[in-house]
Amino acid sequence: AHSGSQAVMIYTPFNFTDSSDGSEPHLQLTNPLVSVADNARQQSRQTFNYNGSFTWEFIDNLKFKTEFGLDHYYNKDKRFYGVTTYNSRINGNNQPIAVFTSKERKTFRNTNTLNYDFKKILKNKDHSLSLLVGQELIKVKSNTDTDEVRFYPKLFTADQAFNLSSQGTAFSTDKFYNADDILLSYFARANYDFQGKYLASATFRADGSSKFSKDNRWGFFPSAALAWRMSSENFMESTKSWLDDLKLRISYGTAGNNNIPSDQTSTIWSAGSGASIGWMNNMSSYWTTGAQMANPDLKWETTEQWNAGLDLGFFDERIGITMDIYRKTTRDLLLDASLPFSSGYYSATKNIGKVRNDGLELSLNTVNFQTRAFKWTTNFNISFNKNKVLALSENQTALLTAAQFDQNYNGQSSYIAKVGLPMGLMYGYVYEGTYK
Asked: Where in the cell does this protein reside (predicted)?
């Protein structure tokens, strides 16, 4: 079935066009080709990266390493909307609009690790054991300045608007300083190897994020993996002429996600001014409103994954095959959820539901021809994935969301997440044909 945007049904097909430029005077419609030509954008980006590290071996096999880095990003963005664009028609009284945006972000990272190799203690070549413990700090500071200028003379071009902003009317100036985004992590990892045949590793992470309130700040994420290299066993001796590697793997792990804007756990206030008859004695007054609903109960989104794999190598590693099957379950997804109008807000960030992904991944690598001067290799991979929504919010079986286009025009939903069905399904009218 074919699904069309719901927005197409809200425009009448038999209004007459009577304006000199061919646009519809009764609706905010524009010619898309003309609008594209009447848009302009200039961007200037600067990125500076500073990195360094230091390693010190205290005693034999005990190493301390510290790494640090600073990323400084700066972006200047100028946007111009001419008289034929939708933005000008809606917000600029059919006059040009220019928007000037400056973004700055500084990211500081410091990682400290201690790594110890137990080979001196074990004194046995059959056994290999190493232990690593560490700490990492990532701190992000960012700010955004946005200035919008409207009502330029109608014949102004983009260059004129960018260079002569005083010829328009300053409409808004927004300065937004994000709260510092701080991620503090502690981690430990142990690796064990017996004769290159039996391999084991275990990892534990504790991550603390400033994006969550004090009670939910920390997330704890363990993982473990086992592997058996069967090709090194004595009973596989007869296969060594053609089988180089046969390894079975199994692993379990958890990972956290805190990819949401800062300050979602607290209310952000926005300032403005206005006047209204019968309100505050018809006097211009300053007021503040909550720009978003706070959710102090936000916590880490957690993904749990089981994985089983097989590695094969043939004929002096000329043919390599890797196969993995997995089940990945994500719970407490961090999503922007719609709110009832009675709340006074459109939406709020919440931990919602559970999603499962099951999949298979296959890869084939071959060395087809090789000499000292020439090498021909082939790499092929294919993957299959099936996902399903296992749960949404309490007493909720479906979640509707709007695409940007439909949201702008009629506020109708375009996508649906429903328990028992895959993610990303479109929701809308079924297209049956064109009326003739």
From this structure: Cell outer membrane
Grouping H, G, I as helix, E, B as strand and the rest as coil, residue 201 is strand
- In the predicted structure, residue 278 carries a pLDDT above the cut 60: no
DSSP-derived letter for residue 265 is: T
232 pLDDT more than 60:
yes
From residue 434, alpha-carbon distances to 4, 332, 431 in Å are: 11, 43, 8
Rounded average pLDDT over 75-92? 88
Q: Is 297 helix (H, G, I), strand (E, B) or coil?
A: coil
DSSP string, 22-44: S--TTTT---HHHHHHTEEEEEE
Indicate the helix (H) or strand (E) that contains 64: strand 62-81
CB count within 10 Å of CB 10 equals 10
Cα distance between residue 354 and residue 131, in whole Å: 34
Asked if the model's pLDDT at residue 99 lies above 90, the reply is yes
- The number of angstroms, rounded, from the C-alpha of 184 to the middle of its chain's C-alpha atoms is 20
- Determine how many CB atoms are found less than 10 A away from the CB of residue 108: 16
Coil, strand or helix at 181: strand
Residue 339 C-alpha from the chain's centroid: 23
- Name residue, tokens 């500071």: 141
What are the E-state strand segments in 230-371? Answer: 243-257, 269-274, 285-290, 301-314, 319-338, 347-370
198/227 Cα distance (integer angstroms) = 6
Which pLDDT score is estimated for 327? 97
3-state secondary structure of 348: strand
The two structure tokens encoding residue 50:
């500073």
Judged by average pLDDT, the poorest of 118-122, 211-215, 240-244 is 118-122
Q: Which residue has the higher pLDDT, 359 or 122?
A: 359
Q: Where are the domains of the chain?
A: 1-22+397-436
Coil, strand or helix: which one is 86?
Answer: helix
- Residue 130 to residue 117: CA distance in whole angstroms: 4
**373/250 Cα distance (integer angstroms):** 39
Report which of 235, 219, 144 is spatially closest to residue 185, judged by C-alpha positions.
Answer: 219
In 3D space, the residue among 358, 359, 418, 429 whose CA is nearest the CA of residue 392 turns out to be: 418
d(CA 324, CA 314): 18
DSSP-derived 3-state class of residue 412: coil
Q: What is the pLDDT of residue 18?
A: 43
d(CA 24, CA 16): 8
Half-sphere exposure at residue 27, Cβ-oriented, CA atoms within 13 angstroms: 14
